[in-house]
Amino acid sequence: MSLDRSDVEKIAHLARLAVNAEEVAAYARDLSEILDLVAQMNNLDTGGVEPMAHPLHMAQRLRADDVSETDQRELFQSIAPLTERGLYLVPKVID
User: Fold this and answer.
1) H or E stretch including 9?
2) Residues 6+ apart with CB under 8 A from 18
3) Is 64 contained in some domain?
């Protein structure tokens, strides 16, 4: 795909970029090369390629799933101002 001067100026306007008139031709050439590369990539057959979550084959190190804290619910409920059947009671804030 080939971009011309007006395309680059329109893109610059939409992106709110100030582009010097001398640089427009270089930008048009560079953007056209990028779009050509994208077109080449779209034409590749990726039917046999398995999707990957990460480009590297790495195993995530996981810590042991051990209990690090004891259940202190009864202690916290005992010092709360109001509780009922294991729930904390709070004042109504919305009518």
Assistant:
1) helix 5-14
2) 12
3) no
Residue 82 structure tokens = 């109001």
DSSP letter for each residue of 10-57: HHHHHTT----TTTHHHHHHHHHHHHHHHHHHHTS--TTPPP-SSSS-
Q: Is residue 31 part of a domain?
A: yes
Q: What domain range includes position 14? A: 5-42
**Tens-place pLDDT, residues 73-83:** 999 999 999 99
Tell me the Ramachandran region of residue 25: left when phi exceeds 0, alpha when psi lies from -120 to 50, beta otherwise: alpha
Identify the residue whose tokens are 């077109």. 39
Kindly report, residue by residue over 32-54, the tens digit of the pLDDT. Answer: 999 999 999 999 998 988 888 87
In the chain, the number of structural domains is 1
pTM: 0.51
